[in-house]
Each structure stands twice: as C-alpha cells, then as structure tokens.
Amino acid sequence: MTTARERILRYYKGTEGEAVSVQLVDLAEQAMRTQKFRLTPFLDPYGVEIAETVAASYDGLTVQYDGGYQGAERQRAMFTHDAFGGRPSFDIAVIKAEWKSDFCYLTHRDVLGALMGLGIERDTLGDILVASGTARILTTKQMADYLLSNLTQIGAAAVHCEADELSAIAPREERTKEITATVASLRVDSIAAAGFGMSRSRAAADIEADKLKLNWQSVKNASVTVGEGDILSLRGRGRVEVVEVRGKTKKGRVGISLKRYI
C-alpha cells in the first residue's frame, strides 16, 4: 500500500511542482511527527494548490495561509497538527523602499531584480507592491533586517528603506473584465489571444519566451488544450480565467466566456 508521501511525490514528479512538493511534504510530516506546526516559505498560487493537496492527504493536519494582507498572491502556508493548541505567527514583515520618483521610474521587475542581486531567495519574498516613488516588499521577519541594511539602490535610483506596518497595506481590489468570444479551438494560444487581445502568433511567441503560464505552470506547447476553470497568466498583462466553454457555433467555432483580471 502506498503512503501519502509516495502518492503526492509521484503525482508531481517531472512537473514544475516537484521540488516544492518534496519540501511541503517534509514540512507536513514534521508537523505530524512533532504534533506542532511548520511554516513554509512564500508560495506562488501553484504552490498554494500543492499545499492544499498535501494537507488533505494527512489525517489530523490542517493548513492556513497568510500573505501579509488581504488578497495577497504569494502566501506562506502553516501546517498545524490538530493536537496543537497554540497560535503561532506567520512571521511576515513589510519593508517600504522610497526613491525620488521625479527622476526615476521603477517597475516591479526593477525591484525584484535588485533583491535577486543581493542574493535573496525568491521564496523569502512575498508580494512586491510598487507605486510612484515607493515599493512595499513583503518578506519574512528574518529577512527584513537584512533588507533594511543592504537594499540601498534599485536600478539607478538610491533608495531609503524603513520598516512599515502590514495594516498600512490596502486590501487588493481586483478589477475584472468579462469577455465573450469565439475561437477556432481550445488551444492555449487561441484562448490567450482572445483573453489578452492579441494575435495567435504573438501568443505563440510569448509561449516560446516562457511568458505565458497555464495554472501557474510553464506552457511547453501552443497546442495544449484549455478547459473550464483554467487560469492563464501572462507576464506584465495579468490573468485570464476560462469561465465557460459554451459549445460550437454553426461555423464550427467554439464559444467561450472569459474573465480577465486587470
């Protein structure tokens, strides 16, 4: 009889989630063995899905999530044994970096690049919220002190960093746009073209450049088939959800309903 560990690792073997699944199973089993809790690094939405699968595979284990503010995309998971009665912290902090916006325009990619340049691992970072002249960086409490001491420049801009309050971050309000379209097929390049308002050749080029993800995994082939409930995300363009596949028209095209998150 196969164990929960074997089933999970076999399912994710060879996928982008393989390494994360191993890490999460290890943490879950530590929580089970000690009858306490274990906290994960920051997870992307695909990692959160894996954490759900892991928690559901072990009797007596629950999982909770927190990204530091309501609507956070990147979150930490906490596996907790049912026998544990404590209320542990998710150990999330926020650092506010400021620069003179009159002289320099910085993007999310600029901020992330500067952080990676300091040798910081991506899984120690949550969401990065960039506005005019400021960026709020969600991170672990352990990493916050390092950022305060070492993040002094982003791109060409000198920056000043200070600790901020999580309560100062407004909840994420996602704007959506309903899209009704017909496509030649349910190929991922066709759906991406309809959802993001571009040609299929441009969608295929974005797939080739690894800019497009399906359910937070890289798309290896433009001919992959998409179904209801699937999520397409395009770097710099947001996300599209396939809400409904309505069937074929008289001309043989497929009617679809999409929701674009702007």
UniProtKB/TrEMBL annotation:
Gene Ontology molecular functions: RNA binding
Domain of life according to the entry: Bacteria
CDD domains assigned to the protein according to its UniProt record, in alphabetical order: S4 (cd00165)
One Pfam family, short name: S4
Coiled coil: none
Keyword Cytoplasm included in the entry's annotation: no
Record's protein name: RNA-binding protein YlmH, contains S4-like domain
Lineage: Bacteria, Bacillati, Bacillota, Negativicutes, Selenomonadales
